[in-house]
């Protein structure tokens, strides 16, 4: 009987320990992946969030003036053709290009994510837009508090979920485009952001915040080196 028990114990050890290790490693991997994607990339509120009394923000240890927002929501920009509208962000050139098919609509310098807060690469879709919202995050010299960030276009794909907060948006706290500055979002000159906000889908339909649906899908964004 003792021998049988010993054989059972040995068999349990041989089978049980590897199974336990596989499960443990799986949990560790899942937890690490979850924590990697748990933070909102730009510290933003994913909705329209306007403070009409905001006068001052903070960026990289300096106070910055918060400009007044445009008082009205404009109509969407109608296309000159039926070709697909899409946006290209070139990280190596720090440029954005908006296309109607193969026809260039606009081009501009931008500021994408710092090396330790990179802008994700891949093919995305705009899934929501906000006329303005608040962004706050970072620490030390990289702390920022930025109310009324204008013309925000949130994007996502199957690997980068929308709640992470990556977006294209206007920028009032620096004018150093062509160099990396952000926590992962794509900083645009505000006039460029405004044009894209009304050129892209989902169409704003006179609303301060709108999400995509089957009848109002999001514009495609391709981000690459």
TrEMBL record:
Q: Keywords in alphabetical order, please.
A: Cell shape, Cell wall biogenesis/degradation, Membrane, Peptidoglycan synthesis, Transferase, Transmembrane, Transmembrane helix
Domain L,D-TPase catalytic as annotated: residue spans: 85-224
Q: What Pfam families does its record include?
A: YkuD
Involved pathway(s): Cell wall biogenesis; peptidoglycan biosynthesis
Where, by residue number, does the polypeptide cross the bilayer?
A: 12-32
Q: Name one GO molecular function term.
A: peptidoglycan L,D-transpeptidase activity
Annotated GO CC locations: extracellular region
Say which domain of life the source belongs to.
Answer: Bacteria
Active-site residues (renumbered): 169, 185
- InterPro entries under this entry? LD-transpeptidase, LD_TPept_cat_dom, Transpep_catalytic_dom
Q: Which GO terms describe its biological process?
A: cell wall organization; peptidoglycan-protein cross-linking; regulation of cell shape
Which Gene3D superfamilies does this one have?
L,D-transpeptidase catalytic domain-like
SUPFAM superfamilies given in the database record: L,D-transpeptidase catalytic domain-like
Q: What name has this protein been given in UniProt?
A: L,D-TPase catalytic domain-containing protein
- Origin species, per record, is Candidatus Woesebacteria bacterium RBG_13_46_13
């Amino acid at each position: 009987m003792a021998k049988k028990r010993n054989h059972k114990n040995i068999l349990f050890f041989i089978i049980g320990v590897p199974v336990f290790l596989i499960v443990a490693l799986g949990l560790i991997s899942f937890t690490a992946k979850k924590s990697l994607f748990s933070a909102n990339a730009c510290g933003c509120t994913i909705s329209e969030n306007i403070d009409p009394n905001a006068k001052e923000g903070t960026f990289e240890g300096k106070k910055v003036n918060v400009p007044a927002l445009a008082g009205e929501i404009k109509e969407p920009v109608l296309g000159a053709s039926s070709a697909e509208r899409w946006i290209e962000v070139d990280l190596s050139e720090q440029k954005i290009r908006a296309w109607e098919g193969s026809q260039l609509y606009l081009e501009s310098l931008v500021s994408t994510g710092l090396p330790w807060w990179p802008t994700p690469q891949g093919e995305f879709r705009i899934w929501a837009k906000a006329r303005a919202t608040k962004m706050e995050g970072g620490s030390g010299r990289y702390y920022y508090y930025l109310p009324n960030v204008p013309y925000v276009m949130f994007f996502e794909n199957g690997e980068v979920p929308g709640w992470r907060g990556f977006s294209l948006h206007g920028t009032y706290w620096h004018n150093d485009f062509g160099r990396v500055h952000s926590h992962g979002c794509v900083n645009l000159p505000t006039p460029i952001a405004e044009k894209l906000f009304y050129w892209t889908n989902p169409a704003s339909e006179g609303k301060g915040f709108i999400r995509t649906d089957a009848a109002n899908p999001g514009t495609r964004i391709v981000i690459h080196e």
